[in-house]
Design a protein that fits this description.
This protein has 17 helices and 21 strands. It is an alpha+beta fold and about 550 residues long. Helix 2 packs antiparallel against helix 5. The longest helix has about 35 residues, at about 145-175. The chain is elongated. Bound molecules: flavin-adenine dinucleotide.
Length: about 550
């Protein structure tokens, strides 16, 4: 075979392969639905399918060639006419590729088999090869070497083409996140999560790991700065009041985060420990100390002089004692959200941002988006944070919504080093209900106080900070923080969150829908563990067990 003949065959094959047919439609559908991991099995399946169809065609053509040169020439002419007919048909069709994402959870082997079947058993494949191959066969040359060269060339090109289409579609899927952009499919199957705060993202993570087909729908971006999980950081700490049970759950919380860091490839926990400062007998700092003692959790007790020497930002003489525990730190929420969202996309979940759910039909397992599109699932998990009452007003008796704000500050220059190495401050004592996160990993330092929270009827109301609000929050921290006026407010972040009366977490089941609210102002630290527990309940149906765990009523 001449090089020119081979080059013409390769060029024609490339053009024909690039034009999308049923095989490419399938490849793109899987990649849109489940990402780049579909590329290899689909490309192998397509190559195997083409190999099957091509070998059958070649054997038929070979037999014809051996029987009669005239019949072969007739076949060649008919084949050429058929190819022209196909070209005209394609031109008229306009070349649009209408692929819908496939989200059904299937193994790589099944995907490969599917691609093989669609490619090999498509009668058009065989007809096509019978028409196409004679155009390049030299009937005077040896048949078998030609067959080998044509098949090898075509299969290599078919593999590369399918692989390329899958990668491009997977990338498009990551870029185009709006369900209006990727046409909404009527049935997702699997589990649909409403709300991509830490509870939703972690549940999705754990469900994907358990092999579920998962879609997650978020009304804003991920992370959403208006969500409770959308701030820069949150505190994790062992200390809880005696008798609540949550102190013991911290062991599981750490274990779940460790599992998540392993999957994300990096840890977003700055484990710098926590500090509490007691200013009055029986204040919250003292209650936390009693909780640590009840659980036999270790901590280091410091008198005021020793504490001020170690942490020079404290006001001497303004507190009774301080204590430090290594079991605490700052969780970097925005990095966790971005990491989880990327992990979910890479592992086959559908992640939709800027997609607000306006209605949940719990019995039918259907949600409606603001644009009118509907999505259907076997199970719906609602983790909508402070917005949950808009979808489930029946929970208004158990959940109350609050608005609060946090002040980000720049500390005085001479105290900067002290704050860069300081533990998180869980409680500043007295009635302030105040906590501080020092300078950590490039995120700002912040002050927050339970005194600042006010009830609200709508999580979207009053979300712009009021002038001077940051300074009001900051000033609550003196004492025990010295030189408070020198802390310059750089940013004020408003938040909305829900509380139950006893500050425990809750789950509520209706029809195919499971509503989870793990907040009450302290839920972030349990985020990864909540995700694992909710995913387990979705898998085994033990919602009763989940409720007990959420209330920390487990041994
Ligand atoms: C000021 C403050 C300080 C806190 N400090 C701590 C702390 O130090 N440590 C700690 O452990 N916890 C803390 N918490 C609690 C913690 O932030 C929450 O428990 C946790 O972030 C709740 O996560 P979530 O996923 O349940 O809700 P959210 O983070 O609110 O997420 C809900 C998501 O659902 C989306 N959503 C809502 N409605 C819809 C809809 N209709 N359609 C689509 N999407 C929707 C929202 O946009 C949002 O992204 C604090 C909370 C606040 C407000």
């Amino acid at each position: 075979m001449s090089f020119e003949n081979w080059a013409a065959f390769a060029a024609a094959s490339t053009i024909l392969l690039v034009i999308p047919g049923p095989t490419i439609l399938l490849v793109v559908s899987y990649a849109l639905g489940q990402g780049w991991r579909t590329a290899l099995p689909m490309a192998v399946g397509v190559a195997l399918g083409d190999f099957t169809a091509m070998t059958l065609s070649m054997l038929g053509i070979g037999a014809l060639l051996a029987a009669s040169a005239t019949v072969f020439t007739v076949l060649k002419v008919i084949g050429a006419c058929y190819l022209i007919y196909l070209g005209v048909k394609l031109f008229r069709a306009g070349g649009a590729l209408k692929a819908e994402p496939r989200t059904d959870a299937v193994s790589a082997a099944k995907m490969m088999a599917h691609a093989w079947l669609v490619t090999a058993l498509n009668p058009k494949s065989i007809t096509f090869f019978v028409a196409f191959l004679p155009q390049f066969l030299d009937r005077h040359a040896d048949f078998w070497p030609q067959m080998l060269i044509f098949e090898t060339t075509f299969l290599a090109l078919a593999f590369a083409n399918a692989f390329g289409y899958a990668l491009i579609a997977a990338r498009a899927r990551n870029v185009v996140r709006n369900p209006k952009a990727i046409r909404i499919f009527n049935r997702t199957g699997g589990t649909l999560l409403v709300g991509a705060g830490i509870a939703g993202l972690s549940t999705a993570w754990s469900l994907v790991k358990a092999g579920h087909s998962v879609s997650i729908v978020e009304q804003g971006p991920i992370p959403n700065p208006l969500a409770a999980s959308g701030d820069h950081h949150r505190i994790i700490r062992r200390a809880y009041r005696a008798g609540t049970g949550y102190g013991r759950l911290i062991t599981e919380a750490y274990d779940a985060w460790d599992e998540m860091w392993a999957d994300l490839g990096e840890s977003h926990l700055d484990a710098r420990g926590f500090l509490c400062i007691s200013r009055e007998p029986g204040d919250e700092a003292e209650e936390y100390r009693e909780g640590l003692e009840e659980g036999n959790f270790p901590f280091e007790l410091l008198d005021p002089a020793a504490a001020v020497e170690r942490w020079p930002f404290l006001e001497p003489g303004s507190f009774r004692y301080a204590y430090f525990s290594t079991e605490g730190g700052a969780l970097h929420c925005r990095r966790i959200a971005s990491g989880l969202s990327a992990w979910l996309r890479a592992n086959g979940a559908n992640v939709y941002e800027h997609s607000k759910v306006v209605e949940v039909d719990a019995e039918a397992g259907r949600i409606t988006l603001a644009g009118g599109e509907t999505m259907q699932a076997d199970r719906i998990v609602v983790t909508a944070g402070a917005w949950v009452l808009k979808l489930f007003p029946e929970l208004g008796g158990e959940l109350k919504t609050y608005r609060t704000a946090l002040a980000y500050v720049e500390p005085p220059a001479d105290l900067r080093v002290a704050w860069e190495t300081a533990p998180v401050i869980l409680d500043v004592g007295g009635v302030t209900d105040g906590y501080m996160i020092p300078l950590t990993r490039g995120a700002g330092m912040k002050f927050g106080s339970g005194l600042h929270k006010v009830p609200t009827s709508d999580a979207d109301r009053n979300r712009a900070p009021v002038p001077g609000e940051g300074e009001v929050i900051r000033n609550l921290f003196s004492p025990p923080i010295a030189r408070i006026a020198e802390y310059r407010v750089t940013e004020v972040v408003t938040c909305a969150y829900t509380f139950t009366a006893d500050e425990k977490f809750l789950a509520h089941e209706r029809g195919k829908c499971l509503v989870v609210s793990a907040c009450s102002g302290h839920g972030y630290k349990f985020g990864a563990a909540v995700g694992r527990r909710v995913a387990k309940a979705v898998g085994d149906g033990d919602v009763g067990g989940l409720k007990k765990w959420l209330r920390a009523e487990v041994a």
